Each structure stands twice: as C-alpha cells, then as structure tokens.
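Obj: model holo form, ligand = biotinyl-5-AMP.
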Amino acid sequence: MTRAPSDLERARDLLTERGCALGSPLVLLDETTSTNDEAKRAAKAGAAHGATWVAERQTAGRGRQGRAWVAAPGDALLVSVLVRTPCPPAYVPQLALAAGLAARDAVALAAPGVDVRVKWPNDVVVEGRKLAGVLVEGVSTGARVDAIIVGIGINVRAFPPELAERATSIDRMGGAPTDRAALLVELLVALERDLGLVAARGVAAVRARLAAADALLGESVASDAGAGVAVGIDDDGRLVVRGDDGAIARWSSGEVHLARDVSARSTTR
Ligand code: BT5
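Output (holo structure tokens):
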C-alpha cells in the first residue's frame, strides 16, 4: 500500500528547500513488514543513494539480533535510508554511531531544552529511557558492500505500554505535538552531514559532539564483556571502560546495561 500519510507529505518540499540529497525519492507507506526490507529490496534492484522509505506501520519491525521494534500506527517515525556513500569497511560499523548522533540532534531540535543523549552503540535516550533506535544493515555482493541501509525508529507520540519503564517519546517531553515532517527533514539533513563525515574520516570526525552527547560517560556499566565505568568512545567507535582494577577495556559490540538500572530491575532490555 502506498497511500501517503498526509502530515509527512510536506517533507518533500522542505527537503528540496534544504538541498538535501537524502529523501529523494521519499516513499511514504501505510504498511510494510519493515522499512529496512523495502530499502534492501530496492538496493538490490539498483535504487540510488538517498532513496528513503517511511511507514506508518511495520508488521515485522526489527532491532538488532532478531529483537523486535514495536510502534503503534502513527505514533512513531519509522524511516530507512539507502546510502551508497563510499566507505572503508572499517568505518561501516561506525555509521550506526553517526546515525545515532544525527537522530539525537534531530530529536533535540524537536524538544528544545531536553537533554537528549546517545547511548552507545545505537540508542537515543532521555534520562536513561530509550526514545529512538538505529539499525544499520549492509547489502553486499560477495565481500563488497554495495549499499548501507540506515533504519531509524523514533517514538514521537506514544510508545508501547509494555515498555513504560524503559522508553519515552518526544511528545512525552512536553510542549506542542511534534511536527513529524519537520522532524523527518531535520533527521535526513543531520544524517547526510554525519554519515558523510564518518564515512570519510571515521567516528573521529564527530568525536567532540559524540563525547558531549554520550549517555554512558562516567556511568557504571556492565555487559557480557565485564563491568566498570564508561570513560568514553574511542576513534574506532569502541566503548572505553575502566575496570575496578583500573585496567582499560575496549568493547566493540554488545549490550550495555547501566549498573543502576540492573540493580533497579531484574530485566535489562
Ligand atoms: C534498535 O535495536 O534499537 C534498532 C531499532 C530500529 C528500528 C527501525 S524502525 C525503521 C527500521 N525498520 C526496522 O524494521 N527497523 C528500523 P535494539 O538495540 O536491538 O533494540 C531493540 C529493543 O528495543 C527491543 O528488544 C525492546 O526492548 C526495545 N524497543 C522495542 N520497541 C521500542 C520502542 N518503540 N521504544 C523503545 N524501545 C523499544
């Protein structure tokens, strides 16, 4: 189904005004399995850099490692962007951090005065509650990465009640109802900037902004890799953690839990 949700139509003109290469074409869908599926299919069929899909409802929205992304129709901004910017393989995993930072900036513009942060490796959080998630997937031919799909889900109005303790949304932050077209445009403009920077120079190119928005900095964290205090994100996009014995570890992937959350709850995600 391709009947367009009306409030997002305005984004087309706004994107042209901003000269943004992402969001062209902009495909607005009522329903799909996952916007990342749409983008992947189109990438394999040769669709161009910048093509973007937005859906009101996903029947199989996904996160990483088979986890589900849940959103009621119209409550969220569910977006996937097809990216064909040349990028050394080593920088590909860092694009999720770039996308998280861009989503953080777009949300911060929509929620002035709210402390919006990036939680390594791929979440946008406010006061420890997840407001957005990023799923980056590659489309490859053999060893060559032909395209990168950047999928982002942002809770705009409500969020799933079963996640009441762990999630939040932009509208929950107060103020007027969020203009989703403006949010989408700011997201795509910020993505174009940050994906370009990180594809060219790695996450070092956004080091200062990432450090300023780092939700884990100075927090006690735990993961399968161990426990300690997060002291930053390095230029390879790894989380730097100082253990109780003072030794520095660098975590390259995985689930990270705030120690204070683990002690407050029995379930962690
Ligand atoms: C993510 O995975 O956070 C990546 C989410 C990406 C979603 C977008 S929507 C557009 C595009 N199309 C897709 O199919 N996906 C992308 P992960 O870090 O694995 O987190 C998943 C976990 O987040 C789940 O296990 C839940 O605990 C939690 N979660 C699910 N829905 C949520 C929501 N609406 N708000 C907050 N947390 C949520």
